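Methods — Computational structure assignment.
A single polypeptide chain was analysed. Its primary sequence is given first, followed by the predicted tertiary structure written as structure tokens.
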Amino acid sequence: MQIMQLIYIAFLIINTVTDLINRRIYVGINFFFAVPALFLFVTQEQPSWLSLLGGILGGAYLYLFSLMSKEAVGEGDAIVVTVSGIFLGGGKNAAVLMGGLLLTGLCGGILMLCKKAGKKSELPFAPFFTLSYMLLYLGGVL
């Protein structure tokens, strides 16, 4: 396993734990992970700037959606997706994001069917994003 993957997994675990326990995503923690990710990206033999841009723009788009939707998606979640885009690039980050959204929707639907949640209930997104990455990685997609 490469150093970049280990740092990324630590990034996911820390964001998952803070999102589950504190229901918050900390900007400082994400910045702490973004710096080495950018450094490792730049020092690659042939970095794909287009992929990096795609990864960051995906998170930026989610951030704008968060602002426009009065945080139907949290700003912190958009920050996690943006930093994730530095690690994974545009295509892989989009796959993990879609998987995370699907898992969140499935969980929310099940909770609603079981009368444990309503339409306005909030779910932490980082755990589903992390689970999506793990499933895609273990499934050989990433």
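Note: The first helix runs from residue 3 to 22.
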